[in-house]
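Q: Hand in one record:
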Amino acid sequence: MSLSREGLEQAEIVADLLGVEPLAAVYSSPRERAYYTAREIAEQHEKKVEILDSLDEVDFGDWTGRSFDDLEGDPLWDAWNAERGSARPPGGEAMTDAVTRAVEGLEARAAEHWDQVIAAVSHCDIIRGVIAHYLGLPLDNLLRFDIDPASVSRLVVGSWGARVMSVNERLYQ
């Protein structure tokens, strides 16, 4: 799924926001919509986007392609939203597994780019999960903060651990 006109405009705004950062690399989820955002960022820095599978969105299994309205009232959907730390989409990936793969991927890239700034473009649930991980929040509380499309959250990641510097920055309404 590619970006809408609004999504493309938001990607340009994010690229402008990160245009002043000295980026060493730009990584993206393999999903097309994430790649388009990453490409906007990378072009400002004369970099190529590197696909990082660990940034992919949660595998929603049998729910893939279904709307939120369609899932409303499904007891498994309700459990997923209330108990992200233990629930699993039918035929899909547990949130704990998704967060583990994303954290491992980010930490490996941080080790490669020690003392440099990188951009990693992913999806709201993955970003929420990573932030929750580094803040020590249970995944069951994942929906207590927002990650908007085309927003920026900043982390400093090192061998000592990580620090969350900002969450959900955006320059558009």
